[in-house]
Amino acid sequence: MDYRRVIPCLDVKDGRLVKGVHFVDLKALGDPAAAAAAYDEAGADELVFLDITATVEKRKTLIAAVARTVKGISVPLTVGGGIASCDDIQALLDIGASKVSINTAAVRRPEFVGEAAERFGSEKVTVAIDTSANAGLPSGFEVMVCGGREGAGIDAVEWARQVEGLGAGAILPTSMDTDGVQGGYDIPMTRAIAEAVGLPVIASGGAGELEHLYEAITEAHADAVLVASIVHFGTFSIAQIKEYLAGRGIPMRR
Asked: Among 130, 155, 179, 223, which one carries the catalytic annotation?
């Protein structure tokens, strides 16, 4: 059965699990490896580990933190942050990451997407697209880079089409406008990207209620939902999320 995935997101800064609002005002929440193991045990379908300041600090992903996280889990782990070359990807796959998420480096040099897909296979390459509302662009959504600190002047939907053509295997769009607010995903943005491509799209940024997850799947056509605040702060468990979605007719892995 083609089930929908629930994917806790581990934002990591200086090796510690954090969560912010609009990509800033970060709160320290503990050890990412411990959190990952707990979410794995609780039934998460996959996990995402984002070293959120690696690009801004002009460094590579914290390999040691990723290695500790991988050791305690059995589900696939996607790693992002500071990945700028195929050698960076190889280093992460070598320590057990299942996939990588590339963002700023792909915007700066789009051919990187194709190089990575050719060397490792499209299924290993997720392109993360951070977005912010911009009425001056055709879709109304602009690509943001460097941890959301800079606008790239690129239309987010057009960029999604481009990376699909380059060989990306999935797209992870996150709305800076809704991130951490817990008022719901940016449904128009997510839907616009999902309808523009044939790739799996992972909704991200803003879940606060179970209804928000349902809306992302049914209204925005997301193949998976990324969750952070609602699980980090104990609002809902993975089991509660899956039970709710299954009860509303969404196919889930139980």
From this structure: 130
